[in-house]
Amino acid sequence: MGSALSCLTCTDDETGEERPILERRPKFENVRHVEGAPVDKKWYHGNISNEEAERRLRVGSAGNDDSYLVYDNPRKAGEYILIVIHKGKFYRWRIMRRPSDGKYILGDDLPGAEGFGSVRELVKHHRGVTGKPIKTDSGLTLTLSKSYVYYQD
């Protein structure tokens, strides 16, 4: 396989500002994209490790709380991980398809869990000033910021 080049950048939806945050480096060669993966969204990073997700978010967030990215769940094909940085700490939620109706849900399949037709819809629902807050295990509530870290081809 050839060596495609990619650049990790950060953008802010409100200002539209974009800036490279790392030197150009080889793109991951063995990226797996499951059916329905939000490959057209820049906040989707594909097949990376948990450690790499933390590294990208730490560098790319530039200190902005509630910056986020989504990547493939390294432990279960067809699922994703939403990772958010807040006050230097990482919070993760699994994004999975609910077996009963095929809708995407955040976290476990608990009664009343809100389902979405796509990962895009789920992220949009929790994003920005009007986004629905996500509760952490410790009771902290986070809303995905308009600022996200993305991997650019």
UniProtKB/TrEMBL annotation:
SMART domains: SH2. GO terms for cellular component: cytoplasm. The keyword Ion transport does not apply. GO terms for biological process: cell migration; enzyme-linked receptor protein signaling pathway. The keyword Metal-binding does not apply. InterPro entries: SH2, SH2_dom_sf, Tyrosine-phos_adapter. Residues 43-127 form the SH2 domain. GO terms for molecular function: receptor tyrosine kinase binding; signaling adaptor activity. Coiled coil: none annotated. Gene3D superfamilies: SH2 domain (3.30.505.10). This is SH2 domain-containing protein. It comes from Amphimedon queenslandica (Sponge).
